[in-house]
Write a structure and sequence with these properties.
- The structure is a single chain.
- The chain is mostly beta strands.
- Helices cover about 5% and strands about 55% of the residues.
- The strands form seven sheets. Strands 25, 26, 27, 28, 29, 30, 31, 32, 33 and 34 form a ten-stranded antiparallel β-sheet that branches.
- The chain is elongated.
- The termini are far apart.
- The mean pLDDT is about 85.
Length: about 400
């Protein structure tokens, strides 16, 4: 009888995306021998799928996806869908995403390596669409030992102010082939002398080994972060990273790195510990200390602009005379004294302030501008403390007397 033609339904939605977006592929095939779903550059033989299924993909570029159908008579029908990928301007760039080896037997492990460049806010690694490392470094590795056979999909997402970039790699995990059953020997009439039963010996477990462990930098200010990096070997099967004796990452990869931002609890010495264990629970550990220093005091005057309202010498600034002060974050002070522009420098320590004698051009504007400017320039170096009260800035001399009062204009 003639072999019925397969009913093939293969769709993708959408077919045009911006880099980093996903595409949902769906298919339904009946009355066939085998079905394979794969993308351009992949070996179709490693990507067998069920006759009815779907897959979420993140195409890194414009490329083709294929559904290869082997019919009952062993002939092949192939369907192709082309996905157009428009670049995301200023999005992070995934320079490398690889998995080694690309095919394993159940019980073996793989290593995922990646590197990212550009403006990156966050990196996430997913396995079969489940997050396993959110906040991963921009360059790192991850060891995975699948617990079940099938296709294992590793997805790397890089988030940045310019968009999101996503790439995927996959591994084919095969079942362990069954071992051959030994054929029993037929008994003979010749007696066989008994042999001594060998006593099995259990090999000693290989101890775990930490090959390297570093935390950088070893001196930070409150609110800053560090990067911890490590590599292990020997019989290591489990890794734990601790901060001051408390685990911050259990079952970490055997080789990897992580960013950690200690809680802002004031100046302290923090101890990071990397502990490596083998299957016999033997332990190897390394410590690194990080000094957390108090953050420098903030300068509330930085990048603010004020207009003079009163002085303790001539009272309210006369109408039509404008005296301004711009306090830069780099310690410079500039503005207009009422007639001439001026420049000087200042320092702030808590509520204390020191202002140097201003330098100005020597133009004359007539009264009252000239008189206001002369008083203003003479009072600035007398300032010893400052106070910001709402939208007003008050400068006082060393005796606590108010000498200058400003209103905020920027």
């Amino acid at each position: 009888t003639q072999t019925p033609a397969p009913n093939i339904n293969f769709t993708a939605n959408p077919t045009t995306i911006t880099a980093g977006q996903s595409v949902l592929f769906q298919w339904r095939v009946e009355n066939v021998q085998a079905v394979f779903f794969y993308s351009e550059g992949q070996d179709w033989r490693n990507h067998g799928v069920a006759g009815v299924g779907q897959s979420t993909e993140f195409p890194p570029r414009t490329m083709n996806y294929f559904l290869r159908v082997v019919q009952r008579d062993s002939s092949v029908v192939e369907r192709t869908i082309r996905i157009t990928v428009n670049p995301a301007p200023n999005a992070p760039v995934i320079n490398n995403l690889s998995v080694t080896p690309p095919q394993i037997t159940l019980g073996q492990c793989v290593r995922v390596d990646w590197s990212i460049s550009g403006q990156v806010n966050r990196v996430a690694l997913l396995i079969n669409n489940a997050p396993v490392w959110d906040g991963a470094p921009i360059s790192g590795s991850y060891q995975d030992c699948p617990a079940a056979a099938g296709t294992r999909i590793y997805t790397l997402q890089a988030f940045g102010p310019g968009g999101t970039t996503t790439q995927q790699v996959s591994v084919n995990v095969q079942n362990i082939p069954p071992t051959a059953t030994p054929v029993p020997q037929q008994p003979t009439n010749t007696p066989v002398p008994p042999t001594a039963t060998p006593v099995p010996t259990t090999p000693a477990p290989e101890p775990p080994s930490i090959q390297s462990f570093s935390v950088a930098p070893t001196g930070i200010e409150q609110g800053q972060c560090v990067i911890a990096s490590w590599s292990t070997g020997g019989g290591t099967t489990r890794v734990q990273l601790q901060r001051d004796g408390a685990a911050i990452w259990d079952n970490a990869p055997l080789n990897g790195s992580i960013q950690d931002c200690p809680p802002n609890t004031g100046p302290a010495t923090i101890r990071y510990t990397l502990a490596a264990y083998n299957n016999a629970n033997q332990r190897d550990s390394r410590d690194v200390q990080v000094q957390v220093n108090a953050a420098p005091p903030q300068n509330p005057l930085a990048n603010t602009t004020w207009q003079l309202q009163t002085t303790n010498v001539n009272g309210v600034v006369p109408a039509g005379v404008s005296v301004t002060a711009f306090f830069s974050s780099d310690g410079s002070l500039s503005g207009n004294g009422g007639c001439n522009s001026y420049n000087t420098s200042y320092t702030v320590n808590g509520q204390a302030i020191t202002i140097q004698m201003p330098l100005a051009s020597g133009a004359l504007c007539g009264e009252p501008a000239d008189g206001v400017e002369q008083v203003y320039f003479s009072l600035l170096p007398q300032a010893a403390t400052f106070e910001i009260n709402g939208n007003q800035l008050i400068l006082r001399n060393s005796g606590g007397q108010e000498i200058l009062r400003y209103g905020r204009i920027g």
